[in-house]
Design brief:
Strand order of the largest sheet of chain A: 1-3-2
Order of helices and strands of chain B: HHHHHHHHHHHHHH
Low-confidence stretches of chain A: none
Oligomer: heterodimer
Largest sheet of chain B: none
CATH superfamily of chain A: Winged helix-like DNA-binding domain superfamily/Winged helix DNA-binding domain
Distance between the termini of chain B: 34 Å
Low-confidence stretches of chain B: 309-317
Number of domains of chain A: 1
Number of helices of chain B: 14
CATH architecture of chain A: Orthogonal Bundle
Largest interface: A-B, 33 and 28 residues
Mean pLDDT of chain B: 73
Order of helices and strands of chain A: HEHHEEH
Number of helices of chain A: 4
Radius of gyration of chain A: 18 Å
Strand content of chain B: under 5%
Number of domains of chain B: 2
Chain lengths: 109, 317
């Protein structure tokens, strides 16, 4: 799973959100590194919807603009959980190797 | 309606009608929300172009749904890999070769193989294996690499390493199959891998005996004439009839996506027939180039647009 897809799912983890809130949340989760564009966000939402990971969660009109909300499905929650565990495991392994390197110095050079 | 709203609305017209009906209002609201939060009164740089690209892509996807493209890609993957495996085993390698073939290979510079065609076949087989292993994005890049290799084999046919290359008709067929493969989803689901595998095994089971049967019908002098074997094995009509048969069975069973995928697979051999007709019916090299050049343009265009879209971090690929 690519990072932007992960961030969209992660942004929905604490409840339903509309398009712009997803963009803002993804930027916050990535410390400003990932700035989702609207066209790409909706392509992602469409694909995630087709895969059954997210679903529509109502609409409202604010200042004359339509806001559509999205939320994770049960499958989406499971997939996000699995991906988060995988990333955490990879990060832990990398940190362990870095600690070993710091303790013994780089080898094989 | 403000000028900004008008420009966004116009850009959203790149999307197909069904998409606009479902998403345009929500998308427009998000575009305006974002512009407002950043204090913009004009679209951001590249924003309209990205919308146009995504809209065009949606139109293409609407014309050819993912279910059809994925099935066609799986069939093409199996077919291309089976043809390649057959020729690699029956012609390019063949350790039981007669003296003449052994002499040819001794000077080919490609180890136990006849020449550079083995690179082409190797890429197809490697791409197939990587796809079955679930790394379909990498596998697609490997298959994409077969197209320039096919072109190089045609363009440098006078070089010793390309001397025993397949005829342009076969290279054309493989290039078109590669293009069909590239239309499938980069992240193929588990089921698509099973389709690939079934298609590959089924096609190989057909081609290997067919290749040996063809070989047995020729005198020894022609035993290693790879061009002759390719012409025999890649005649367009059996391919077209085979896929039409698959399509008819699929329609009878109500599997319309498979029927459409089989119809798409009729296009590569039909493309060859069309190219042959346009080039006067005899010039295989010209026919190959005629299809290879636009195929390459399409491929580069697709990769370039994907690369452009990848610059926008939200593209899920």
């Amino acid at each position: 799973m690519r990072e932007p897809t992960f961030l969209v799912l992660a942004a929905l983890a604490d409840g339903r959100k509309h398009g712009y809130a997803l963009i803002a949340e993804a930027a916050e989760l990535s410390d400003g590194r990932v700035q989702l564009k609207v066209g790409t966000l909706y392509a992602a939402l469409d694909r995630l919807g087709t895969e059954g990971l997210v679903e529509d969660a109502g609409e409202e009109i604010v200042n004359g603009r339509l806001r559509r909300y999205y939320r994770l499905t049960d499958v989406g929650v499971e997939r996000l959980d699995r991906e988060a565990a995988r990333l955490a495991s990879n990060a832990a392994n990398a940190r362990a190797k870095l600690r070993a390197r710091a303790a013994t110095g780089p080898a094989g050079i | 309606m403000t000028g900004l709203e008008r420009r966004y609305s116009r850009a959203l017209e790149w999307y197909p009608p069904h998409w606009r009906d479902a998403n345009a209002d929500a998308m427009l609201g998000t575009l305006l929300d974002e512009a407002e939060s950043r204090g913009r009164t004009r679209p951001a740089r590249g924003e309209i172009a990205a919308l146009a690209l995504f809209g065009t892509r949606e139109r293409l996807h609407a014309a050819l749904p993912a279910s059809v493209r994925d099935r066609a890609a799986a069939l093409a993957w199996g077919l291309g890999a089976a043809l390649s495996a057959t020729m690699l085993v029956v012609v390019e390698h063949a350790h039981w070769a007669a003296d003449r073939a052994q002499r040819d290979r001794a000077t080919s510079g490609f180890g136990p193989f006849d020449g550079a065609s083995s690179v082409l076949f190797g890429l197809w087989i490697a791409g197939f294996i990587v796809a079955i292993a679930g790394r379909s994005r990498i596998a697609q890049w490997i298959v994409a690499a077969t197209i320039p290799v096919s072109i190089a084999l045609v363009a440098f046919q006078t070089q010793p390493w390309a001397e025993h290359r397949p005829p342009a008709q076969a290279l054309l067929l493989l290039a078109l199959l590669a293009l069909v493969v590239l239309q499938g989803a980069p992240a193929a689901p588990q089921r698509a891998r099973a389709w690939c595998l079934v298609s590959g095994i089924g096609s190989t089971a057909f081609f290997i005996p067919a290749a040996f049967r063809e070989r047995m019908t020729y005198p020894d002098d022609y035993w290693w004439d790879t061009r002759l074997l390719w012409v025999d094995i890649t005649r367009p009509l059996p391919f077209i009839l085979g896929f039409l048969a698959v399509g008819i069975v699929a329609v009878i069973l109500g599997r319309y996506a498979w029927a459409a995928a089989a119809a798409i697979l009729c296009l590569p051999p039909l493309g060859f027939v069309g190219a042959m007709t346009l080039t006067g019916g005899a010039d295989l090299v010209a026919a190959g180039v005629l299809v290879a050049v636009p195929s390459t343009v399409l491929l580069v265009g697709r990769l370039a647009s994907r690369s452009y879209l990848d610059r926008f971090p939200g593209n899920p690929g």
